[in-house]
Amino acid sequence: MYQRDYILRMIEMLAQLIAGILKLIKTGDINQASHALENAYRFAFQHDSLKLRDLPEEKLIENLLKEFHYTNGHLEMLAELFYAEAELLRAEEKHTDSYLLYRKSLALYEYIDRESRSYSQDRQDKMLLIGDRLAKKA
Known about the structure:
By secondary structure, this protein is an all-alpha fold. The chain has one domain. It is 81% helix and 0% strand. It is built from seven helices and no strands. The protein has helices spanning 2-26, 30-45, 49-54, 60-66, 72-91, 95-115, 121-137. α1 packs antiparallel against α2, α1 packs parallel to α5 (72-91) and α5 packs antiparallel against α6 (95-115). It starts with a helix and ends with a helix.
């Protein structure tokens, strides 16, 4: 129970950080957004933060569950971070890298959606938004 409460608090705090990052991106403060994103990764995942971005897309969830022993709460935090980083890369016009992170984020959200016992409209909205971003590439 304590671990679940801790993860929920972490998700809430991370959501606030990400909202600030997205606001910085929207206002064009890319350097500050990039710095804040790095801090958010370190805040949420400490020593694993550098490894997470490099995980191959095709084995992302398998690696996160087996190698890192992450819960759905961890996966949700990572999905949020991947989404924020994809938005940052999109603002920097690094489209190939942004699409990769959008796909990773969407894969995590879809997994959580399948495995979760609770419905989340926010998650549904985020999956639709990411789907739209990916569709615009095609």
